[in-house]
Amino acid sequence: MKTLFLLHYNIKRVGYILAIPFFILGIAYLQWDFTFSWLDYHPTKTGFLTDINANFTDELTAIGLIMGLFFIAFSKEKVEDEAISFFRLEALHWAVYANYVVLLLSIIFCYGSLFFTVMTINLFTVLFIFIVRFRYVLYQYNKSNP
After folding, report:
1. Are residues 16 and 63 in the same domain?
2. Which terminus of the chain has a smaller tally of CB atoms within 10 A, N or C?
3. pLDDT, greater one: 35 or 62
4. Are residues 23 and 39 in the same domain?
């Protein structure tokens, strides 16, 4: 069977180091509008895009969380075999299905700025659900095959 390109298994640890604090930062940003003042942008020149005053905390949070979840999701296991590849594929199916269920429900039930918030969170659901499902299936597999 053709092997997939996966990151080294030690990268998973880096992923957790990135994902956990950026997940907490994302919750703080969404719940309490927390921002870092050093990420404020106030242009001083005249010209293109000079009327924009912004803070890039949300962009930093999204980039850090995506990188962390990506590293966790696509790092090899210590023992990578065909069963693990099958579990990855099955978990990816679950994640895509769940992502589109969330998308359909949010289109039906969410309007205005709530819809935008749900869509922003929905960016991360594929990776998050993939990781949760994959870890659960591996746990079940390891429990049944000691």
Report:
1. yes
2. C
3. 62
4. yes
In tens, the pLDDT along 83-139 reads 888 999 999 999 999 999 988 999 999 888 888 888 888 889 999 999 999 999 999
| pLDDT tens per residue, range 22-40 | 999 999 988 888 877 777 7
As a whole number of angstroms, the distance between CA 74 and CA 7 comes to 6
DSSP states of 34-76: ---GGGEE---S-STTTT--EE-HHHHHHHHHHHHHHHHHTBP
| DSSP helix/strand/coil, 137 | helix
Same domain? 47 vs 61:
yes
Q: How many domains does the chain have?
A: 2
Residue 28 belongs to domain spanning: 9-75
